[in-house]
Design a protein that fits this description.
single chain; three-stranded antiparallel sheet
Length: about 160
């Protein structure tokens, strides 16, 4: 690939991300009143029926990237991540756990994950918040055919996760 072509692709991706994640783009809130959590995601994304029960699944129309959210009963964050990713991924590789805060100031845990889904090597970031033995989980993922992993951009969505009581 020529240097010019590479620069054009990088510039195009950056413009897309700047437009896509510009302030005010987050326009929709998914609320799961049964499981007791909510997350805000970009306007224009499509809510799709999840293959896994009790998992919220939303993508942008071009399938880049995708977001899943749900609740897990687990003893710790690692077990909650494994439960959240179970059933629709294979070859799950967990990276080190890190701490952060949600937009509302709730202590959260996050970890990068790598896995295979529908034959594609995928990479994502999982964030979880805990209330007693219940974890609200959200994973933001992508695969190289559709886009690149961008933790800073993924966190803009993931950090909107909160419990709703």
């Amino acid at each position: 690939m020529k240097k010019r072509d590479l620069l054009m692709r990088v510039a195009g991706a950056m413009i897309f991300l700047l437009i896509f994640f510009a302030p005010g783009v987050f326009a929709k809130e998914y609320q799961d009143t049964v499981q007791g959590f909510s997350i805000i995601y970009p306007d224009g994304w499509i809510v799709e029926k999840s293959e896994i029960p009790d998992i919220f699944f939303v993508t942008d129309p071009a399938k880049f990237p995708w977001l899943t959210a749900g609740v897990s009963k687990a003893v710790d964050f690692t077990a909650a991540v494994q439960a959240h990713m179970k059933g629709w991924t294979s070859g799950l590789v967990l990276k080190p756990i890190r701490e952060t805060l949600t937009q509302g100031g709730t202590k959260a845990f996050m970890m990068e994950v790598e896995y295979v889904v529908r034959g594609y090597d995928s990479r994502g970031l999982v964030l979880g918040i805990q209330d007693g033995g219940t974890w609200a989980m959200a994973a933001f993922s992508t695969a190289p055919p559709w886009g690149q992993y961008d933790e800073a951009e993924f966190l803009k969505v993931l950090k909107t996760l909160k419990f709703k009581k």
